[in-house]
Amino acid sequence: MQTHWRQQYWVSANGGAMRRVRGAVTTPQRRTPREMKIRKFGRIQLDLTPIAAAVAIALGAVGPALGIGMLAGKAMEALGRNPEARGAIQQNMILAIAFAEAIAIYALVVAIIILFV
Q1: Is the dihedral of CA 95, 114, 45, 15 positive or negative?
Q2: Are 36 and 17 in contact (CB under 8 A)?
């Protein structure tokens, strides 16, 4: 590590700040996991976890939303063609909607994990 004698702070390999005290280098200061997530740009501190959680739930909800919309449209089309098969069509439609909604719930769980861990 090359430093100038007048320099007061260095950055260690793990990101902690190292201080020179009376010519000696102290051990790295530990940072909390929350502090490690915060990006510092001068005076501005930017925490990217809420943005990452929002992107995760947004992208994770688009697919199921499109799938449920297409599924309901096709079910209505099938009911219009064959009204007698209402029971079987409705049962299969509800089952498929539940499977599509489970994917959105997985995206919600991932977003919550990103946000709080």
Answers
A1: negative
A2: no
Give the dihedral of Cα atoms 88, 89, 95, 96; nearest 10 deg.
150
Alpha-carbon span 90 to 111, nearest angstrom: 32
Identify residue 86 by its one-letter amino acid code: R
pLDDT in tens, 94-113: 999 999 999 999 999 999 99
* pTM for the structure as a whole: 0.59
Residues 6+ apart with CB under 8 A from 37: 47, 48, 49
Distance between CA atoms of 92 and 85, rounded to whole angstroms?
Answer: 11
Asked if 65 and 57 touch (Cβ cutoff 8 Å), the reply is no
Q: For the chain, count helices (H), then strands (E).
A: 3, 5
**Cα within 13 Å of Cα(88), Cβ side:** 5
